[in-house]
């Protein structure tokens, strides 16, 4: 089984948290019919960006299920979860409210990335108001998505500076509180 990141926009498709939850439930039911599962769905507060993480045999099952749910597919990448075990992510206990995207430079291999992450992650303690949760690294080494719980964008930026990792974009994630 692989993990797949599927990026989309739900703007105009859903407009409330309740509609989003119903869409995710319906999608997961469709995925389950094909021995796949929606591991998580993170959405920007304005619904303009959505990040589906699907576990399944191949990317076709995931993309077909999204299309059947009338969700446009903008990007599909196989990803690797770093920083947390998949079983823990499936429990859905973490609160995350920011997603940082970083386009990885061409010359970095997965082993180099993982070594750098291991070495630099200890520096998160320098920014105690930010909790790093997990990262999804695209297997083709084009980009990664890092999830955080932080009080604001400035704190996320300080955390990224502490671990010496750039930011290509920051997305505030819809939470139950907002």
Give a description of the structure:
29% of the residues lie in helices and 30% in strands. The longest helix has 16 residues, at 17-32. With 178 residues, it is an alpha+beta fold. The protein has two domains: 2-80, Alpha-Beta Plaits (2-Layer Sandwich), CATH 3.30.70; 98-172, Alpha-Beta Plaits (2-Layer Sandwich), CATH 3.30.70.
Total domain count:
2
Number of helices: 5
What's the CATH topology label of the largest domain?
Alpha-Beta Plaits
CATH class of the largest domain: Alpha Beta
Q: What is the average per-residue confidence, as pLDDT, rounded to a whole number?
A: 91
Question: Structural class per helix/strand content?
Answer: alpha+beta
Give the termini distance in whole angstroms. 34 Å
- Identify low-pLDDT runs: none
Give the topology string: H per helix, E per strand.
EHEEHEHEHEEHE
* Lateral arrangement of strands in the main beta sheet: 2-3-1-4-6-7-5-8
Major beta sheet, specifics?
8 strands, antiparallel
- The helix fraction, in percent, is 25-40%
- Please state roughly what percent of the residues sit in beta strands, choosing from under 5%, 5-15%, 15-25%, 25-35%, 35-45% or over 45%: 25-35%
Q: Judging from the principal axes of the Cα atoms, what is the shape? A: globular
Could you tell me the number of beta strands? 8
Rounded radius of gyration (Å): 16 Å
**CATH-scheme architecture of the largest domain:** 2-Layer Sandwich
């Amino acid at each position: 089984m692989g993990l797949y990141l599927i990026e989309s926009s739900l703007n105009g498709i859903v407009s409330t948290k309740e509609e989003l939850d119903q869409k995710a439930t319906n999608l997961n039911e469709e995925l389950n019919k094909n021995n796949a599962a929606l591991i998580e769905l993170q959405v920007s507060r304005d619904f303009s960006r959505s990040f589906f993480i699907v576990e399944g045999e191949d990317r076709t099952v995931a993309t077909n299920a999204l299309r059947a749910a009338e969700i446009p597919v903008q990007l599909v990448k196989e990803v690797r979860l770093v920083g947390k075990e998949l079983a823990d992510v499936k429990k859905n206990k973490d609160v995350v409210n920011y997603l940082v995207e970083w386009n990885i430079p061409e010359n970095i291999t997965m082993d180099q990335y993982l070594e750098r992450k291991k070495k630099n992650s200890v520096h998160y303690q320098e920014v105690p108001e930010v909790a790093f949760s997990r990262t999804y690294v695209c297997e083709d080494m084009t980009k990664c998505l890092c999830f955080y719980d932080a009080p604001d964008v400035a704190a996320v930026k300080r955390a990224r500076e502490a671990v010496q990792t750039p930011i290509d974009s920051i997305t505030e994630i819809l939470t139950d509180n907002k």
